[in-house]
Amino acid sequence: PPAQSQNDWIGPPDKHSNLRPVIFYVPPEESPLERRLREARQEAQACNQRFWARHNQAFHQEKEEFIYSRLKAKGLQMRDETGQKATLSAEEMADFYKDFLSRNFRKHMQYNRDWYKRNFTITFLMGQVALARALRWLRWKKKNVEH
Amino acid sequence: GLFMWRLKSTGVRHIPCQFLHLCRAANDRLITFQYFNFLKRMYVTQCNKDLSQRAKPKSDPVVSPFHELQQLEQEKKVIHRISPIPSAHQPWPETSRRNELREVKSAAETGSVTAVRAESRDDRQWKEMKLRLDELPGILARLSKIKLTALVVSTASAGFAMAPVPFDLPCFLLASLGTGLASCAANSINQFFEVPFDSNMNRTKNRPLVRGQLSPLLAVCFAASCGIPGIALLTLGVNPLTGALGAFNIFLYTCCYTPMKRMSIANTWVGAVVGAIPPVMGWTAATGTLDAGALLLGGILYSWQFPHFNALSWGLREDYSRGGYCMMSVTHPGLCRRVALRHCLALIGLSAVAPVLDITTWTFPIISLPINLYISYLGFRFYRDADRSSSRKLFFCSLWHLPMLLLVMFTCKKSVLEKEDKGDLLGESHGRAVEIRLP
Questions:
Q1: What is the predicted ipTM?
Q2: What biological-process terms (Gene Ontology) are attached (chain A) (predicted)?
Q3: pTM for the full model?
């Protein structure tokens, strides 16, 4: 993002986490409230990134392992004569999906709680910041009018 | 039309293009193309999001075909992402996305690929997080899942139309608007809650909050500015019962269904209730009371949700599993199919109850029997085969089955005058006829 921009910038989805990274703009006269908001957002972003990157990688890895073990049980190779990767049918994959979901249930529950809390906090802070900015602007307007 | 066929021929296994195919077939069924476009929009919207969205009504917007196409493009882009992402060295000029889409509309296959690549290239750039006012209507439309809410408004209108009272236009308009606003609010809050999950699912990763086109604060403010006037409108402009139902439905959708999606498969049943409430609201808006007819109409929509959703969720098991959503199709696949079949059959039963409650004449169960049997047949095929093609067939059937059923119901509606006559003949036994509001 250009150096003179006064806004945050959001990028393309991350390869592992599918989340879009945000580069936060730090204004020169950042109030403590605004700093709290920015830090909360950065922390949430880092947390989300860590969780999803790890989770998605685990998913793909376990999926590969599952396919490999199933193919081996059937006596097939990972790649057939044309070099294409062998895949299992949707019904066979369904077993894996069910298993994966139940194994990660606890992890998701914890993440949900965490995410909801963060989301509310960030939004609430955003509200406070918006209010503070609006009051500041009104005061500035009043000062200008008086002069 | 030609464009749509091209989509199919690219070999992209793409649900909307099958749907469009169905769309053309359905034209023969004397359903207006407009209405079908409407459904297509609804479906494309559903595709774009997490399937389990149930929405509340919204007044019907005039969505330009452009917007539709844009949605369609986003869908295609979604599918294309799975295949290798094209390199950034594209020889196309840096035209705006909209121009690309305009070209695509009249162009052939290559044109469509151009648009897709342009969009995915566009998507891979860094964007400034500034709210652009000219984009705002589109952003808010996507935030409120306007197409889906529009479809739900039509179910509420069906509820209103089926109520055995003279048609009151102002009331109808207020009810539709109120439920539409309530729906926008509910959908916005839902998207607000689900940002990281939506990012990870192919269907939903182009939502405004995911792309940073809108701040969460703005989303919440929008939801409040739709929801509060919406419910107020329903409570004060229509009647308190409808307002209460609207508020309850928002609560059910945002605070029960949305979190439950990640906790237990029971979310599907809660979601079915969310979908069943709008026609009940339409009915109570017209009559002011919650009587058997309202519940029957709600029951029909409740049952319909299951074949519709279960069939659709069958193809999304991978995304659900990775995203951590607890859906029957992933955890209890047998139950998923059984429930879908069960409710297809229930629709036959419910249709037969309609004349008993004096909502329709006896012609309704007879005329609706073919379509109910057909969806039950597809439900049975889905139950037995449990594969992608049967799930898709069932899903697409559900899309035209519901509007058709409601249409037939409306045409078979027991006319108010008929009931009045009966009332005169049979005395007090048809009390409802006597209470009819005179225009």
A1: 0.88
A2: intrinsic apoptotic signaling pathway
A3: 0.74
